[in-house]
Amino acid sequence: MLDRYDVLVIGGGIAGLTAAKTVATAGKTVAVIEEKRLGGSYLFDYDVPSEVGLNAVKSAAALESIQKFGAKKRTLSLSLAGLARERVEVAKNVDDYWGEEAMRRAKVAVIGAKARFVDGEVEITKTGKMRHVAASRYIVATGGKLNTSGIKIDASAKIWAPSELWAATRLPKTLMIIGAGMSGVEMAYYAAKMGSRVVLIERESRLLPHEDEEVGRFYGLHFAKMGRVNAVLGAEVAEISGRELLLKRGNSKQVLPITGTAQVVLATGQQPNIDGLGLETMGVRVGQHGVVVDQSLMTANRRIYAVGNCVDNVSADLAMLMGKTAALSIVSRHAPIMSSAASPKVLNLVPAYARIGATEDELRRKKIEYKKSVVLLSEIPRGRIDSAEGFVCVLADTKSRVIGAKIIAPEAESMILALAAAVKYQMTADELLRVPVPLDSWNEAVRLALAKI
Ligand SMILES: Cc1cc2nc3c(=O)[nH]c(=O)nc-3n(C[C@H](O)[C@H](O)[C@H](O)COP(=O)(O)OP(=O)(O)OC[C@H]3O[C@@H](n4cnc5c(N)ncnc54)[C@H](O)[C@@H]3O)c2cc1C
Fold first, then answer.
1. What distance in Å separates the CA atoms of residue 4 and residue 366, rounded to the nearest whole number?
2. For 341-353, how does the pLDDT look when each residue is reduced to its tens digit (9 = 90+)?
3. Where is 307: in which H helix or E strand?
4. d(C-alpha 102, C-alpha 14), whole Å
5. Which of 85, 240, 280, 342 reaches 20 to 30 Å from 194, CA-CA?
6. What residue owns the CA closest to ligand 1's atom 14?
7. Mean pLDDT, to the nearest integer, of 100-120?
8. Do you find a cis peptide bond into 351, omega within 30 degrees of 0?
């Protein structure tokens, strides 16, 4: 007999699981089809493993900084085996929320199989056996895969995905990281702090090219002071073999040898993981970034929704929000509209970087008039106490409504939250200034920047 559900979710990453839980809460029958492990790349490849690695090197840096209080100088060495144990522990804790048992409690059925659309239904395959399942609505949440487009990769090339670096129990002497976006920069920081030498190769002329110029420049200088990271900018990797990288710089070419102790890591972003899913047979359209959806995350086929990294390269919080939005669009009469306005971008280093809303590059490109105020951390008491480097920059429209902000500071990821609320609810700088902040906190820099708008 054909199994039927109100909703079938294909892909049990953070986007699909959030969608399934939301559907079940509304009292509808729902199943998640997952071919590997529930939790997807959030739990096993990127977010949780990178958080463990970065927290370890950040904690070590904090411990070393107590020397200024007279503590005796000690060299702290982190153990990769210890990090691996911690990753397993953290994944176990998170599994209590996202694992099979948690899904059973939430009344979400779990089908361990690979799925694809065939004849208007879903065909599932497990260990060679096939059967069909069907639903009134489908949510596609199959995530992303490593983007290798534009790079010719020889069969002799040995390449790591970012997940392999975060899972490594031995780090190579030299890492050649291709791509200096958020992920590449976080990996470079981690590997350098763990003792590897890093060659960080970026096609654009600065680190973090999707952020404004001063941000890329700041971390370029930061890496130069820190040592161990050599940034190769304005160089596009065209070919990778077992022995060398072929770089293009405008019309000229350059060869970078890969020594015996070096490992190449691709941090070139993600592309949608939708090959062989049969979406074309269902009339679902696919664009440059992934599955094409409207504001309620419905595809060109009214019975199929798509969420998470198969739609676009999104952060985990946005993937979850997409899952929830798609599910509510299906189960409630007043379908919500997907908005990414309050989702900050965060670079998890010391000092951290956080941004909300538009970049200045984007505002200039769209010819939107804006006001800007910048406060250096050295202008506030807390910054002087801690000798901290960094800044708070607030962007506002001509009516002084906050439309964006970028912060480089020790607690940037927390400081950005009030500004995120201001962007989402279109508050003016004056309105946000009415919220008090503790004296001598980093947030004084935010206040000062708002006052200067
Ligand atoms: C290098 C890197 C670093 C990142 N770091 C951060 C970070 O620090 N903070 C942050 O917020 N976000 C980060 N992200 C983004 C975050 O990982 C993603 O937003 C999130 O994991 C996307 O979840 P998803 O459910 O869309 O996809 P996935 O987690 O990829 O889940 C998709 C699931 O679908 C399954 N599947 C695929 N095809 C089928 C099929 N045909 N049948 C059955 N199952 C199938 C897969 O096995 C997988 O489990 C990072 C991403 C990358 C690439």
1. 47
2. 778 999 999 999 9
3. none
4. 13
5. 240
6. 315
7. 95
8. yes
* Cβ of 344 less than 6 Å from ligand 1: no
CB within 8 Å of 101: residues ≥ 6 apart: none
Listed in sequence order, the residues at least 6 apart from 76 whose beta carbon sits closer than 8 Å to its beta carbon are 60, 63, 64
Burial 342-364 (b: 16+ CB within 10 A, else e): bbbbbbbbbbbbbbbbbbbeebe
Q: Which residues contact 420 (CB under 8 A, 6 or more apart)?
A: 342, 343, 344, 356
DSSP class per residue in 150-191: T-EE-TT--EE-HHHHHH-SS--SEEEEE--SHHHHHHHHHH
How far are the Cα atoms of 78, 133, 183, 185, 267 from residue 162, in angstroms, in the given order?
Answer: 20, 34, 8, 11, 6
261: Cα separation from own chain's centroid:
29
The encoded tokens of residue 112 equal 């361990």
Tell the burial category of 97 from Cβ atoms under 10 Å away from its Cβ (0-12, 13-18, 19+): middle
405-439 pLDDT, tens per residue? 999 999 999 999 999 999 999 999 999 999 887 77
Question: Is 316 close to ligand 1, i.e. is its CB under 6 Å away?
Answer: yes
Nearest-CA neighbor of 141 among 47, 38, 44?
38
Lowest mean pLDDT among 129-138, 154-163, 413-422, 436-445: 436-445
- Residue closest via CA to ligand 1's atom 15 equals 315
Q: Is the CB of 40 under 6 A from ligand 1?
A: yes
Strands 30-34 and 3-10, sheet pairing:
parallel
Task: Quote the tokens at residue 226.
Answer: 């820190």
